Structures
1.
Amino acid sequence: MSRKRAQSLIAQGIAAAKAGDISRARLLLRQAVEIDPTYPEAWLWHAGVAENPQHAVSALERVLELDPKNKRAKAGLRVGRLQAGIQAAQANRRTEARAYLLQVTADDPSNEAAWLWLAGATDDSLEAIACLEHALQLNPANDRARAGIEIFRERVRAETQWLCPICQACEATRFATCPQCRAILDLARGDAAIANPSPNTEKIRQGADRLASEARQKPNFVSYYYLGMALLNLARPDEALPHFREALALKPGDAGLAAQVDTLEQALADAPPPTVRISAADREKYQETPGRLGLARKSILIVDDSPTIRKLVGMTLRKRGYRVMEAGDGREAIEVMQADGFPDLFVLDVTMPRMDGYTLCRAIRDNPTTALTPVIMLSDRDGFLDRMRGRMAGSNQYLTKPFQPDVLVNAVQDHCPLNG
Amino acid sequence: MLMVQERAGRSKAPKPTKAGTSRVEDDSIENELVSLLGELDFLREKMILARDDGRRGELLTFAEELLKHVSTFAHEHVPFRSSLEMKAAESKANEFRSFVHQLRNREKLELEQTLSGQAFLTLQETVLAYFSAFTRQFSTSMAARSWVEVASIFVVELKLLAEAVSQ
């Protein structure tokens, strides 16, 4: 019965596809292969009307499972995998793109386009060079491949040798803080840059002059960005801001940078920056003043496997003046703390993969550095035993989901006041 | 003209802004949206659990509840219900309801997975359409930036769930 129904759906699907009604054909053929997945013809037509190359590839693979000699499927698969690889590469899904393109180059090593796209999809510069050399062997007149090889060779050189973008000190490995000029080089750590305790002002100033001259002669992102960073390290954030804006104008799609520039702008609007370097005594004073250029911002670590909740809580707390760090589970939280230091308060989800909230809470309590740090637990379980479990693990407060943002903010402010 | 006024009078007016503040400074809509998104994500997590446990009936109920939250919010906070975004959202919502009706009234289960997948993809598209309408409630795109960032993460998560349901 179901076989007959499948046959009827296939016939209708093919008719719809021939008539150009692709969405109906797709629906009918999908239903047909769900009822009876043993018809190569149905999978073949299904591939022909697939929504995207990835679906087409899966359908064609099914055809070859059922009929390994099917020539149309073999030919279609080569084209489909190349298209799927290109689409994935364009969407920056590099691992997926690489997997498809590796299959294409293995099946057909004479596919010049596949080698070129594979070079772009790999994270390994040496592998990229090898791919481009293949493409160049196939077509010695391919200027893109030749130019690409030069770019990747330059990248290999840069990967093995690092130049501080501010003072141009040459080091064997990459640094987030230059060991020579001691400038902090990332706007994500802008607060730390402004409060840099030991910058080599002479070297940073020379670097800033060079970058300003470069930016004037040939405006480019790197010069503007690091000129901004140099000025931040010299505790001149008001002068740095316009350069970050210029950098952003050259990279308008960089949402991370846009958010960092916004934060800096906000901090400057809230409190005019000091124009001289802050002394140790003054820094202590600023650290007691919440919101002053963010120097003393209390930090909160949110650990939740839901990216929506992390962003939501992060957005709410950032607006109240907190610095927010995020982690998707207990283990990532530990990595974040190792990289960015310990927070002033934890917000933990109970149900998480790898390490749940209770286990992480106990680990926090067992660590002498965080033993007294407040912990707020978020859970979708409202039972007495669940609350007890949270308390026994060492949490200070237990909130149930869905929570109102104001309730969470009040809890955070109770345990970790901004001016406390 | 009169008709327009009558229609406008029937729909619930948007919440007034705080006295003395511009819409840019007034973040009441953002606060409301943050609360809404918290509730929606809570339901999304419940849907994941229901799907993992194979409780398809509950999965549908949670999906319906999620849509109810969004459409109720839209009715309370979006004054221009005849806008293109709202029309698109309401048409998608109807499409989703019709899928749910089909799923609830099916005797044969042979196509349930296909239909469920389509229903959840439609739900995701509906939520996206409503979110576009909500984004219009901000006075400037700058003011909406944080909301857009969080909402887009939620929509992607919802799409992942829809894809998982259809597999």
2.
Amino acid sequence: MISQDLAEMLRDARTVISNNQDLINNPEIGDKHLTGQVVLERAVKSYEKTTGSDPEKADPNSRQGRLLRAMMAAIVAATDDNQATINEKGTAFKGFIPAVFGRLVSEEFNQRANGEAVVKVTAPPELVRNRKARPDAWEANVIKTKLLAPGWPKGQSYSAVVDVEGRPAFRIMVPEYYAASCLVCHGSPKGEMDLTGYPKEGGKLGDLGAAISITLFH
Amino acid sequence: MVGLTIRTRLILLTSAGLLVLVATNAYLTRALSENSAGMVEAAALLAGIEQADSARLAFGEMRYWMTDLAVSQLTLSERNAQAARARMDEQLDKLAPWNPQRIAVVRSELAQYDALADKAVDEYTNDRRVIGNSLLAQARQHSLAVDQLLAAIVTDLTGEATAARLRVVAEAAAAKRLSHIVVAAAVLVGALLTLLVLRSIVVPLRRLVAAMDGLNAGNVAVPIPAAGADEIGAVARTLARFRDTLVEQNRRERELRAAHEELKATQASLIHAEKMASLGQLTAGIAHEIKNPLNFVNNFAGLSVELLDELQQTAGPALDALPADQRAAVDEVIEMLTGNLDKIAEHGRRADGIVKSMLAHSRGGGERQLADINALAEEAINLAYHGVRAQDPNFNITLERDLDRNIAPIALVPQDVTRVFLNLLGNGFYAANKRQRDACDAAFRAVLKVTTRNLGNAVEIRVRDNGIGVRPEHRDKLFQPFFTTKPTGEGTGLGLSISYDIVTQQHGGTIAVDSAVGEFTEFTIRLPRSRQVTMAGMTG
């Protein structure tokens, strides 16, 4: 399923960035050799491990192949565009965190998808930090009525075919839950400033922290 | 003021003080109320300044966060901008009542800024920076307008608050001045009224105290303040009554003291009279017992003289036969015996006279009959004077009479009263004569005066001489039997004693003596017209 694959790839790349936060924020190391290619390779490995398939072997002429390649290119571009930041010596926290990375990748992907698909990392409105990640009406409704509904199965996505600005589209919302690493910035105590200078949301392990919204236009 | 009671005065004084207090309090309350309203107005204006400042601050925050939002795109900045906007709206809501039109203008400018800034942020979010910049530039114009409007509001509010504060201060100062004037006037008037009230109380009180002190010191003539209508007047009236009571008490006390003195004198007289009566009885008893032996002495003395004459006649022849010298011796003896017997007879008669006088104490006198006291006095004067002149031809005295011719005859025992007169006159002649002889003063003229007076229910006789007088220590003994200051043989000491008995016991009268040594002696006898059995006696 294309949308799930895109979401997995994005999630895997973001995990790489998350796992390398200490390295990225090490002020004593200059070149960290965490290039876009390095991030992609590690993400692909993770992707293969999760899905059991090699994304680079997807048919480039197929929609899946095009969009996966666009996603992988976006991962490389988002990483390489920020090499100066990542490698800046003398600065500890650099703000190149998984969420920012996810938004940058999404923005890169959307440019490369040529209107065929749109990927956005959004979240419940009260958890959104960057207004670019604000959910639209459909996304907000899905989060509220589905993903946050008491009986909603953990990890289950919601998808529907809807009309987007006059165009029929397949939309899916893939829930993301707080992992331990997420809670460093989004955990407790609520209101306490995190590393970025933003007040923590007071989230708990397993709470719905975000949703990857993917729109596939017909 | 004097016509009011002290209670009324004090009530009026207290009421005046309370009235001033209430009036002052009412004025101060009103002034405070107005001041408080001014303070509230000033406080409201200050609050308005604070609200306008807070609105400016909130607007500044809002602008900051909107700008931050445009750059960071963080929803936190958006929420902070919204919160600042809410605070600003809240402050504008508070300010609105002060000047709704100006606040409406502020809100209008604010709304335009907000709309343009929101659009600008949206354009930044959608990566259309040029349009975002243009919109922000437009928003900045409205931002400046809001800022200027709020600054003007702050300036105006500050001016109004200052004016209100100055007005409050001026009103407070005026109230304070007036309050001081009222308090000073109240103190002055209160002090004056208090002095007047105190004076109206203290002055009469001092007079009362002076009157009380005077009365306490026994001065009943001390002036007592006029009795007014107040409480002090009541005290003055009571004090006047007390003074009257004191005067009456003093009078009664004097009367009581006089009565007491009279009683003491009467008691002394009674004791004296009793003593005199006892002495009289004793004297009579002694005289009675002596009279018989004395009769024997007198009788046998006379008989012995007769027997001696018979002896001479019988023994005459024999005696003639005796030699001349023997005859002379016998004649001498007979002559001596005759002389002795004559002396025995003479002294026996004298003793008999004494005994008779003594017996006169108990004899009881003769018949009482109406007699002219003046005639009795004249008779006694003549008898006494010529009696003395017979014994002493050189005796000379001026006799003065002041006899009341209006004295009606009085019932008495004439011979006894004459005897009293004779005793008194005899004593008077003796004293005057003695002074004349003792003084060897040629200029001295002996005078004896007899005075009679009709006292209505009594007759008074005074016998006064200007002789040697009676010494004080002899006064009490004067009427005792056998007391005499005359040389032996010249007085028996019974004259005044018998006179005393005749006047007091027999006639129920009084006999008194007044004397100054070397100047005079005056006996005063009072004989009542209707005999009363009184025990009155010597009073001098």
3.
Amino acid sequence: MTDVFRRTLLVASVVVVVAGVALIDRTVAVSPPPTSQAQLDSGVTQVAAAGVESSAWYCTGGSGASGGAPAKVLLSNVGASAVSGTLTAFSSSGVSGKFPVYVPAHASSTLVPAGLVPGAWVAATIELDGGSVGATEEVSGPQGWSEAPCASSTSSSWYFSHGSTLGNDDLELSLFNPTATSSSVDVDLVTTVSGALQPPAYQEIQVPARSVVNESLADHAQQDPATATEVFALSGSVVATELEMTGQAPASGLSLMLGTPSPAASWSVPISTLPAQGRIAFHVFNPSGELANVDVVVKTSEQTSSPLIVPVKPDSATTIFANSIPFVSPGVPFTASFQSRNGVGVVVDRQVVAAPESQVPQRGTVPAVSSSSDQWLVPHLIGPGTGPGKLAIQNVSGRPIRVTVYASGSSGLVEVANLSARTLEPGTVLVDGPTPPPPSADLVVEASGPVNVELDTNKVGAAGVVVAPALPMG
Amino acid sequence: MGRRVALTGARLALSDSLIGLMETAAPSVVAVVVTRDPGPWLEDTLRALGAQDYSELSILVLDANSTEDPTARVGEVLPNAYVRRLGTNDGFAASANAVLGMVEGASYYLVCHDDVAPDPDAVHLLVEESFRSNAAIVAPKVVDFEDPSRLLHVGLAVDKGGAVVDRVEPGEIDHGQHDAVQDVFAVPGGCTLVRADLFSELGGFDRAVVAMGEDLDLCWRAQVAGARVVVAPAAVVRHQERMASGRRELDGFAPDIGHHRRARRHQSSGHDRFHRRDRSDHDKSNRTDLLALQRRHELRAVLKCYGPFHLARVIPQLVILSTAEFTLALLTGHRARASVVAHSWKWNVSKRKELRIERAELKKHRRFADSEVRRLQLHGSARLSGFLRRAFTYDMNAAHLGRAHDAALGGLEDAGAMMALSTAPSGAHRVGLSGAQGGAPRPSHPEAQAHAGSRPSDADGSRREELPVLGERRFSATVQTALWSATVIILIFGSRQLLGAGFPVIGQLLPFPSSGEMLHRFLSGWQPTGLGLTGPATPGLGILGVVGTILVGAVGLLQKIVVLGCVPLGAWGMSRLVAPFGSKRARLVSALAYLALPLPYNAIAAGRWDGLIAYAFAPWVLRALATAAGAEPYSNREERSGVHGPLRRSQLLRKTLALGVAEATAAAFAPSSVLLVLVLGAGLGFGFIVVGGADRWNQAKRVCLVAGGSTAVTAVLLWPWTFSLLGGPGRWVALTGPAELPSSAPSWGHLLRFAVGPIGDTVLAFGFLLAAALPLLIGGRWRLAWAGRAWVLALVAWVLVWLGGRGWTGPIAMPAQILLAPAGAALAFAIGLGVVAFESDLPAYRFGWRQGASLVAAAAALVATVPVLVASTNGRWSMPATGYGDTTSWMGPAPSASGYHVLWLGNASVLPGGGWQIEPGLSYELTSGSLPDVTDLWPGASEGAASAVVHDIELARNGDTIHLGSLLAPYSVSYIAVVSNLGPVIPGEQSPPSSPPPSDLNYALGRQIDLRQMLSEGGVDVYGNGAALPQRAVLESGAAASSTGAIASGDTAVRQGQLPLEGWKPVLPGSSGANSYSGRVPAGTLFAGVAPAPDWQLSSSQNGSGEYKFKSGTAFGYAPTFALNQPADVTLKFRGSWTHGLAVGIECLLWVLLFGFLWGWWRRAARRLGWRGHRRVKADVVEEVTKTSGPAQNGGGGGDSSTATKPVTVSVGDGS
């Protein structure tokens, strides 16, 4: 081999290898590690899987026994094993107490933390030695009743898109720190009257470990019809709920709302029904510093609206009234979808106001749904409602999905006859009630794809005023 | 004024009696001529003395037992002279001192060498000046014998360290500029007038000073005694300086030196092929011996003549200067110089008793304090300033050896003068006894011969390829020294903060415990890593322990040495790797290029000790493999001589063993070194195959054999640690370290630039690639072949690290910092080849693009150094200033003096310490106490009981528990530290590289209701676990049944967060990681959070009933528990196994045996090769030509040619 040949060969080989690998390096991208499910579920309330070693629920927002809205906690066990644990009640006056809990398999237990410790506001931590148990809480009082899920995890941020301090309305924010780490919390308000507020009194609120702190937002957002709230834990993490207590009839109501831990670009309200002489308002809150262009699509069984582009300014909230949508008429169920066109996260809820002559509560606010799951736990009602009214199951995937609803009872999970193996086309909503209605039975919705679930209740001013919380299952 | 002088001795031509009496009006002077085997120059001396116009001059010739009696020769010239033949030769000083017993009544002695020629009026001028100045010692102006217009000496200057400096410049022309009478500190020998009474009072010359320095000693003592020493330039003496110039055998007046040389000559007899060097060696050895004599006698004068106070001041300064000189001489390859320095101290230390006597004697005569004596001394260090002056004026050889080397190189000055100067040790004066006429030689430069096509053949006689060399003459040692000095300065400058303040606790730079602790860990059969493991520790701990002990426990210094020392070690290895190319420029450039790679500095910045070890180790391995392959120019002496042909099996075996020892040493600290060697072997072997050649398969086979064999040797040497490492489930991770996430792996471009850290992420760093491409473009023959191999090796390493980074190599994913070391070494190697190609191949080409390519390559290499130069301004190579030692120090001894664990979680690249891998991108480690130390750096391949901790962490990450604190409580985990940055993030001060753990980890920990977040900023999140059990705790009798049941039931209750851990009291306090604890324990259940349970025992020696051993149980699947029915003084200790002791003993024995074998082999090889490795041959040949050409010319000019060509074996230079 001559030097010339060898030189040429070597130079060519080196160039080929260097360039070739460089080409592959550029072409074959290395994707970052997939975000774990736990991270995806960060802050999202969900039922722990059956096999977990332990799980916990954090329930807050209820008043003490003598307050206007004491809470009951419903533990729904849809698993095959009994679960025991401890409920620790904390009052805003610093009193706490531990109590054993036990939830048999395919059964439920109801607890009233407000009766366990004295104080103006009471929160509870329920530690369980297993999973498959969902926890919801119900507050009730003279102004009505409301249900909300307890939180399965703490978060360093919480968002509420709407609350009213107008007239006699009261808006209470509960900050519950169930962890062993003290937390320092900032609470910012976005009002329609004064815009964004950072009340000094709400900055660096100290929430000691295992304690609950309550703030009446009406003190700083006075006479504001739509106050959005942001909660930031500077250290540690908390659970935040808002309790809106509206005035006397004809527009009374209680709305217990668990905050949303993070804004999202996509929201949906599976089913809404415009009450006669009532109204439905969607509140879209943009807590970011960027303008959010939100597409709103309303769909009935027959029509679909063209996307309505709603610009939401930074640090502000916008209200969209369903009444103004042409084909939305009273009594006709519709689905509303919200999609941030530019990806800016927003927070959405729905407020239903029934006709003045309706049964209390006549006004209620529930958060829209931002996450979907293929398995949902729908606990039975523990309030004055008579249990399952209309169950709405929305297919949020792009393919047909088969859905089966089970009723949890002493004989285990039993298929609900009229909700068994139902097929849902993409984008459609199944609206039906279990037949016959299972008495005090928790429902489990299993689908072959992601769905959103909402359960309307009876005996309220209008459909959607009180919605029973549905909990995605992990 | 008449005086009678009595001479005792042999009166020539009169009788055998030496008694004579003289009456004279002038002071009587006796000229004492000491001679030994004088040459024909003696007659000149005698004639000059005989021609003196001083009437009262007597001449006494003292013959130091010459082989031939010179009496007849003296008589022929000076019939009236006296001759005394001394029965023995005790050296010049002792011989001259004989005059004290022979002469009575003399006023002066004129002590003369036998190669001087005083002008006719010299003696009377000296005597006159003595009277005029009241001087006790008077010296003439000494001029060159052949050319009296050139000055040799006009007195001498001396610094406080005894270094003698001439007051005239070498070869200085006498224009009368030094003709004023002056007080001087010392005068040179040769022809010195000494007042007889002083000479007698002082006891004459120091008998121990056989030659070179007796004049300094005498003058210094005279100064101490209050006498004046002056130089009288009106008196002129011509001097040949035969001995000082190296033209006369030293044996004559330096019997001890002569004996030493004879012994060495005898030792080397029989090795004919080295005799050819003897002639040149003779000059070198003569000069070295003169240097040695001069230096040791100067030091002797210092040690003898100073009072205690000044001696205490001066000695430390001399020690520092000597150490620096010794080190520099070694580093620059002037080992003879180094040995001279060492000899001077050794010799004087050996004479310490004699020195004490001499000091006591001198004290009797002291009239002047040292402060008075020192008035005439030079300020500062004359030796240092002279050295620097010569280095910058001429070159390093001249600086070390005098200016003969420069004369040889340039022939810029008169040969005679230069030859005389050449022998002057560091500017020391010349003292000699000489006599032959004849011109001094002017050695020719070897490069001149090379240019003329007469480049010398190798020592074995075989002809090698003749290479035209460009500019080697201009590439002087001065340039090398300047570049090296600049490099050292830059390295020190760049590391200044690390050198001063030490290392922060980041990455693998963990604090060293005491040397005793490290030794203990090595010898102990139990390691506290994780929850405790039974098994051997890395021998690295033993090595660190031993070295730390040698350093008197200075483990901080030890850490700096073993970490920062990797950088120069790598450069040295690169220099050695390129040495066989025969180009000093190539060696320098390769080493500098290797130093300029961002690789080691990125390793420092990231706290990657293993990366630094790989950097230091790679060139040495490459050298060993290249030598094993035997491809030109890497072949051993025997092969090149054709005596033994290609490498024999035994040679391969020895190379394998030697590399195995080195590999084992490196692997003991960085286990990945094993894979590094294999990759180097595979890459180089592949390179041989790709590049081709007649013997390529054999060469590739040899490379692979040696690489594989050395790895096998390593496995044996590191036994039993190796087996425990390879036997565990995490063997690959233990070898390669935890894997990185593919998304965080460096890109191909970053790899090519070695930008795997904060340094080098710039296009400038591509310059090294351009520079390394030069030999591919212009190299010929073996340069091209080796360039190809180097590039293949580099590409193999690059591609492997690239594939590994993408997760395409399975479990074997070596960190980039380690696998880039072979690529870096190959690249620097190729750059060196480019230099050789530039020197040897380029001249053969016509002017064209190749010349341009060379310029581009040079410019690219220069530009590529910029990132590292810029990074050096940081002072710490971008390493964070603050480590986790400061951030987590608050953990301190809390929460329990009975021990606790910290669970560290994070990406391995930022996690302090070692750790086991949970998944790519997430590792963990459990440390006893707040911070890991260096003993936690090698956790092994088996996690033992600690794997349960991983299970619990996974539960938390999966959302399956909210009671992680309770789950970890039985493992005494009091803190969980989640690390996301290499060091603490301090806004405005430091922002260390970030490599966060999986995003769900902190979320999962945050949702645990029994963990308390204690610190959530600064690169680390710390969670406290208040539920943790103390590592050694007791649950007293009578505690809640549920608490006791918790132990009994294992972890069931714990997992549900219902374990009532209250009531456990810490007991048996002690340092973390110990394997024995003692103390009083109340009755109850004793829990010890150390694994494995069966290997721990609790005993008590109460009541004098002997040792009682408690029955143990196991809790939580790993921890021993003991039931105590009553309070007792107990000892909890690890029950060691005798098999471990045996294994460690065998391991140590293996090391000793192999070292012994290799040492013996090296000694035999060294003897066979004349204490030279074949690496040195080329340089030696250059030296040989330089020296042999001298005598060849000299031989024609004088009578000592036979002496000059006489075979001697004392070797001088970098090969000795």
4.
Amino acid sequence: MDADFTETSALKSTSTELADARAADAAADVDDFSALAPRGSSLEWSELMASKLWPVAVLVLGGSLWAQLFGLGLVAEGQFDQPRLSALVAYLIPLFLLVAGVWSRAPVILLTLFMVGSLPGLLFLPDQEKLLLGEGSSMLRIGLTLALFLAIASAGSGEDVGSDVPHEPLANGEGSDAQETWVMQRFVMARIGVLAVLFALPAYSVFQDPEVASSLSKFYPDAPHVARTFLGLIHFFVWSVAAYMMVLVPSLNMEYDHRRLARKLGEQYRELTRKRIGLRVLAWVGVSAGMIGVMLLLT
Amino acid sequence: MRATIYDTFGLGLLLGSTFFFYQTISFLAQKDYVSGVIAMAIGFLVIRVGVEVSKLAILIRRESND
């Protein structure tokens, strides 16, 4: 009995020591994690942002943009005796594209097709709603929503597209050169200048050009001011997409493009042989000769 | 030198796209929606080419700096 008691107490003390040791290890682990906490938490945050918050933010902003553009038109259609089916489809297409873009995370759907898909809906808007959209505060609100939408949608879309490019370290000094920074600044500033021209010239044609004004009064005799507002909206959309294509995307993706181009050039260098080059030249000569032959036959 | 030529050409293309957007406005003002959309698409394509040429200019400049 005594022996049993002794064994039991020995086991207890051993298990207590083991528990203490585990507790110490756990404390050490906690210390280790606390040292890594900022990096770990930022990773978790970025993963959370990419997986959960990004679709919600894009859906909310895109939905808000859609509601600002077509909400009144949709309500007006509901009040008509016979709602126009084509108008309803045109209003709903951007919403469908928005959901498809968020689901697939394809930049081309969110940033191009969603914008282009909104244009037919603008054509179908009743005159009163077009005028309401053309008011100063509405344009400002839509512009801010569009800018936020473009920024957030471009930040999270197409992540799997870029993941196949290895993030190799850049060569020594590359990317940190002061001259390179100046080149990038010049790149961005020159394009902002072009954007200013791209805003000013079509804006002049919409609101000041006498030729456009006469066309508007000739082809839209009932309400030329509504047509002018419609043209202003189209111009605004074109300018927003151009700003995205000309300044935002090239500035953000320069390093990615650099790596991709270097990789593609390397692949082509390895794959191109004399035989393949000869075949390509022959193929293009054949295509050109065929096109010239078709043109001669047609004329 | 090559980089400067590419850069100038790219900027020229970007500026040239303004012409197509101007034409878009003119076509839409005349209720010629198909021509307007085509001119708009050409304008965006010209912008795309201009951006690619400008990127090439930056890459050439980088390579020559290295």
